[in-house]
Amino acid sequence: MKKRFSAVVLITLFLLPAATAGVEFDDYFTSGSLRIDLYHSGAKDTEFYSVDRIIREKHWGGNPNSLIDTMNLGEYIFFVFDLDTNNLIFSRGFCNLYGEWAVTDMAGTSPPAVFHETIRFPIPAKPVQVKISRRNRENIFENIASFVVDPSDYHVRDERKYQYFRRRALIDNGDPSEKVDICIIGDGYRSDQVHKLREDAERLVNELFSVEPFRSRKDDFNVRLVESVSEEAGVDDPREKVYRDNLLELTFNSLELDRYMIEANNRVVHDIAARVPYDRIILIANEDKYGGGGIFNFYCSCTTDNEYSGYVFVHEFGHCFAGLADEYYSSEVTYNDEMYPRGVEPWEPNITAFTQRDKIKWAGLIGDDTPVPTPDDSTYAGVTGLFEGAGYSAKGLYRSSRDCIMLSKTMEFCPACRRAINRMIDFQTD
Ligand SMILES: [Zn+2]
User: Which of 33, 203, 216, 249 lies 20 to 30 Å from 414 when distance is taken between CA atoms?
Assistant: First the structure.
């Protein structure tokens, strides 16, 4: 108990002075991104980060006015401290595949696992300390890794890869530091299928910007496609014993769920994304099977030729961009009850465990006349309320509307999701 208390105090002390005082970009950073590739390994209840390699990238697409993360989203967060002054100069919440694996039954029954992941921040002018924290079961952040990075060290690699892949601006609204920058990368497209990659990317992007609030906020986005090519068409489908030479190594059956297509060669994904400034990465797979996946502030994916591809693209981007939770509660998933421990308020902005009106995240959107919890019947279609059933659980977790893109194959976000998306756009652009 004592240990948990100290962790809370430490993080509070670090956050408040810096967030209040503000961090001036030019005081601590130069242009470009410092990218840290990590191995994230462990078994149930133990996890470990090891640095794979550190790379100096040409582009940084982020907002220099939002260096400290004020969104409080994500299962994990990393902090960057200036080593001389110990000032907090950057932080960012995120999620990863290890965190998902750890709440499947595989974590208790199979050998330890290892996943590859990446954190990025603008290149610091001087040495920094990086700390990575994870929420415990009470949702309190606890430190799990800490290391020092000297940007002038010769181990920091100035490496450029995939220079021969062409880049194409699908939406160009100007300065990356003032926009949400999306990088789309294709997987399983042969060199003679680049035209199809372009058409698929354009079609899916049009689907995204046909949905509110993306439609109204389109001017806040840049979208760039890197025209990556693979030796073979399609991606891996282990349950069909189909294994292809696809560049990103996207595969169905990620974490043993057939439709989940998220595991990819993270090194290659980020080597290719580094060709452009970006805040989020979307991987599109030249496939007609239903599938995809989305992990907050890591990347998301979908197939392109399924009748629901447009829907999956928007749904998975909701996870990746704004940290939205799944609101569905009746489909098969790979996670166990530890995903959302009973009695703990989830960090995601679109689901809640609270039933007291004043504690609901979207309380301000609920009319005084609407009963809380709200009956899930047609009387309350289109009404903002508190509907039971969300986050893979029919009981004990609640959502803001009867329907949402995060719940079913509709093409409309619920009010809580729309508000969360708008807030993230503001964070990335104001
Ligand atoms: Zn929603």
Answer: 203
| Residues of the domain holding 244 | 167-322
- The CA 382 to ligand 1 mean position distance, Å, reads 12
Asked, for residue 420, whether it belongs to a domain, the answer is no
Classify the phi-psi angles of 396: left when phi > 0, otherwise alpha if psi is within -120 to 50, otherwise beta: left
Distance (Å) from CA 348 to ligand 1 centroid: 11
282 and 375 in a single domain? The answer is no
Domains: count for the chain = 3
* pLDDT tens, the chain, 430 aa long: 333 333 333 444 444 444 435 799 999 999 999 999 999 999 988 999 999 999 999 999 999 999 999 999 999 999 999 999 999 999 999 999 999 999 899 998 989 999 999 999 999 999 999 999 999 989 999 999 999 999 999 999 998 999 999 999 999 999 999 999 999 999 999 999 999 999 999 999 999 999 999 999 999 999 999 999 999 999 999 999 999 999 999 999 999 999 999 999 999 999 999 999 999 999 999 999 999 999 999 999 999 999 999 999 999 999 999 999 999 998 778 788 888 988 899 999 999 999 999 999 999 999 999 999 999 999 999 999 999 999 999 999 999 999 999 999 999 999 999 999 999 999 999 9
| Residue (of 265, 266, 16, 273) closest to 117 by Cα position | 266
Residue 417 lies in a domain: no
CATH of residue 217's domain is 3.40.390.10
Distance 400 CA to ligand 1 centre (A): 7
Distance of alpha carbon 271 from alpha carbon 281, whole angstroms: 12
CA 287 to ligand 1 centroid distance, Å: 27
